[in-house]
Amino acid sequence: MYQLFYSPGSAALTPHMVLEEIGAPYKLVPVDRANNAHKSPAYLRLNPHGRVPVLVDGDLVIYETAAICMHLADRHPEAGLAPPLGTPERAHYYKWMSYLTNTLQAEALTYFYPDRLTDTAEQAAVVKRHAGRRMMEMFETVNGAMDGVADPYLLGDKISAADFFLLMLARWTRFLDRPAVAFLQVGKLLDTLATRPSVKRAFSAEQIEPPYY
Q1: pLDDT digits (tens, 9 = 90+) for 140-166
Q2: N or C: which end of the chain has fewer CB within 10 A?
Q3: What mean pLDDT value characterizes the chain?
Q4: What is the C-alpha to C-alpha distance for residues 66 and 190, in angstroms, rounded to an integer?
Q5: Is the pTM of this model over 0.70?
Q6: How far apart are CA 176 and CA 10, in angstroms?
């Protein structure tokens, strides 16, 4: 049985939804970040960076959201969350997983935690403003890639782990002046995903309340 170390609404939501979609047995292990459980010696042995999520798969311990999701998709090909190896669709899947984690999520973290990069509140405000603008440009890029496509997913008519990743990131923008759902194609994708039982179960388990995104 898998173990997913998580905190509600964090980046762990993506592998949580993927686990629900796959239907494999798993156990949620809460990490109380408010009391610095993610910095405890026991947790740091799992992830030396002290971040969630962490997936334990037998003797295998994996951290980094994208890595966990790609591992799960490969371990359960019957779920269809990653295209076959060597296909153009697989290449686009890699592209989106890389873009979401290395570009969009990284910018989101700069937006929400600008103080990590600055020395004063004034500097943090400037960093936050620019990061917010760049983040919206990135959602515009994602939206444009799906523009004119009738099918709702990043890869066209086939759902993938990348779609769940996008949903998690879009949730983080829900209180911004222009949330991700305001982008037409992204909004269609979010609405499609929100109807899936796997997403509903993950949201319920993490006690995530509306607005969902």
Answers
A1: 999 999 987 777 899 998 999 999 999
A2: N
A3: 95
A4: 19
A5: yes
A6: 17
Angle at 95 between CA 94 and CA 97, to 5 degrees: 65
Overall average pLDDT of the 186-205 stretch: 96
Cα–Cα distances in angstroms (integers) from residue 157 to residues 70, 80, 83, 154, in the given order = 19, 12, 12, 8
8 Å CB contact between 4 and 53:
yes
Is the distance from CB of 142 to CB of 166 less than 8 angstroms?
yes
Q: Among 108-117, 118-127, 141-150, 152-161, which stretch is predicted with the lowest mean pLDDT?
A: 141-150
| Gap between the Cα atoms of 196 and 209, Å rounded | 16
Residue 211 reports pLDDT greater than 90: no
User: Is residue 154 within 8 Å of residue 160, measured between CB atoms?
Assistant: yes
- All domains in the chain, ordered by first residue: 2-79 (3.40.30.10), 88-196 (1.20.1050.10)
Strands 2-6 and 54-57: antiparallel
Closest C-alpha among 79, 61, 52 to residue 163: 79
Chain Cα centroid distance, residue 2: 18
Reduce the DSSP state of residue 163 to 3 states and report it.
Answer: helix
Contacts of residue 182, Cβ cutoff 8 Å, sequence gap at least 6: none
DSSP string across 76-114: -GGG--SPPTTSHHHHHHHHHHHIIIIIIHHHHHHHH-G
